[in-house]
Amino acid sequence: MRDATFFTRPTAGWQRRYEALRASFVERLPDRIVAERFGYSPGYISLLRHQFRHGKIDFSEPIAEGKATRWKISAGARQKIIDWRQRQLSAGEIAELLAQEDIDVSVRTVERVLAEEGFPKLPRRTQLKIGRTVKGADVPARAESILPARVEGKRMESAGAGVFLFAPFLAQLGLNEVLRKAKLPESKYISAQSYVLSFLALKLLGTERYAHVGDHAFDPGLGLFAGLNVLPKCTALSTYSYSLDQAHITRLQEAFVSRVSRLGLYDGSVVNLDFHTVPHFGDESVLDEHWAGARSKRMKGALTLFAQDAQSKLILYTAADIQCREADDQVLAFLPFWQRLCRGVPSTFIFDSKFTTYSNLAELDRQGIKFITLRRRGQKLLDHAAKLEPWTRIKIPHEKRKYPNPLVHESKVELRGYEGELRQIIVRGNGHEKPAFLITNDFDAPVELLVGNYARRWRVENGIAEAVKFFHLNALSSPILIKVHFDLVMTMIADTLYWRLAQNLRGFESCDAPKIFRHFVRGQGIVEVKDGQVIVTYPKRAHNPILRAVPWQHLPTSLPWLGGAELTLQFK
């Protein structure tokens, strides 16, 4: 028989909490007394009061505790559960199907029935294996080329809608003509331009590696940018890159650089050159060990070459698959490419002391190419420089330079392996403990210009650092060298597109790719296809007024790789 202890000493958890709150609010007992009476801590009583005040505890229909009544399943419902499990449907999917037939059964009840019938649990499956994405959209069987007419009237939410900001510049650069000259291979379902645009889309979004293409695999807006229903899978992208030989990549690079040059984006008067080692941590014995400056050690990797236009800071040439014995001659391999590109333009090559040999410097001089590099210095040379007089103070015309007024000493020197004399400029007071020994075959340029041009060689190093950090040059999913070179070319194209966009953003002309991506490219958008037009709408953002001020009307609006569809960009 129940008595007052039912209320003063409740056994059910929900009733204990109820009586504790009643004692606290109605009887106004201190938290310590309430906690002692009902077996709680004072802190828990405070938590209960907080939850009750904010409506997080509801005692209107307390849940009965103890053994719950088992839900009775009719023979017909049981047979349906068995039939659907034989089709490999999960308990959650079976519960949804039963709900559609007005049979209200919980997932736990379905699991109990399946256990009673002897069915084991299904192994855990991803949404992709089930055949659905996280949002419930159907997974296409494969990526294939499409035209806007196929998705006419559709409204697609795209997490990568920012790539459409680059579409007018791609049309201006004549991507179709570039790929036609490159003669890249294509598959039965995916064209060469769609493959290249898929790679570019990943680069423009800063995707860490090709293995992470699954993060964007079901974005229909991103697929439409590449002229596909969805982006190709990682395996398809990797296989395509393996199918490209050196001739394909060389033609692609030459066609693109020639097009950019005709648009006048390269100044060409000064070219910075530098090596970069793409590290490899596998067991491939075919790779040599090279110096990796970022890690300050020699390590196994793919040696690559970058050439950069010093004025615009654009990458204009890349090379890969460079072996140790070939490194010294890379400047001569670059020379015919540059002479074809910039005929009649007097150029100056700038590189560090270990980039090439003195005999190759002599060949550059015979070809009429000016160069600025460092002389390899030893202790004997440093001791000799300490005794030299006089020193002249100069002013380097660079606003942000920390040491704009170094001391210089000029002379003419002869070096072993070099035919003739060189102009030597020793620089001290430039922030380094030891003086720098510049050597050049340019005897006419002012010393301030020569020192300033070499001082700005850090631009190519910054460009490589940006390629590594944002375009993820070091995060390749394969050590195959020919793929490294293809990735270099994709990085060069993406870098050019970011530069073109930045030049049209007022106040952001000199910003790097990460900052442009963070403020303008990253974020969702709505992609619609109406009457053959591709309309991309971007939500409200702080920098939208700057995007609206871009002269889009003076840029191409027709997208050749989408059958000439017109592109309209809208900013709320």
Describe the structure.
This protein is α+β, with helices and mostly antiparallel strands and 572 residues long. Among the domains are: 5-53, no CATH class; 75-124; 151-303 and 310-325 and 472-572, no CATH class. 38% of the residues lie in helices and 16% in strands. It is elongated, with a radius of gyration of 34 Å. The relative contact order is 0.11. Residues 65-69 have low confidence and may be disordered.
Keywords for this structure?
10-stranded mixed β-sheet, 22 helices, single chain, alpha+beta, 5-stranded mixed β-sheet
SSE order and pairing:
Blueprint: H1 5-8, H2 13-25, H3 31-38, H4 42-53, H5 75-86, H6 91-100, H7 107-116, H8 127-130, E1 155-158, H9 167-172, H10 175-182, H11 192-204, H12 220-225, H13 234-242, H14 246-262, E2 270-279, E3 289-292, E4 297-309, E5 315-322, H15 330-341, E6 348-350, H16 358-366, E7 370-374, H17 379-386, E8 392-393, E9 407-413, E10 422-428, E11 436-440, H18 447-455, H19 458-469, H20 481-503, H21 513-521, E12 525-530, E13 533-538, H22 544-548, E14 558-559, E15 565-571
Parallel strand pairs: 2-6, 6-7, 13-15
Antiparallel strand pairs: 1-12, 2-4, 3-4, 4-5, 7-11, 8-9, 9-10, 10-11, 12-13, 14-15
Task: Flag low-confidence runs.
Answer: 65-69
Radius of gyration: 34 Å
DSSP helix fraction: 25-40%
Estimated share of beta-strand residues: 15-25%
Oligomeric state: single chain
Shape: elongated
Number of strands: 15
The biggest beta sheet, please?
Answer: 10 strands, mixed
What is the average of the pLDDT values?
84
Individual helix count? 22
**N- and C-termini, Cα separation:** 71 Å
Structural class: alpha+beta
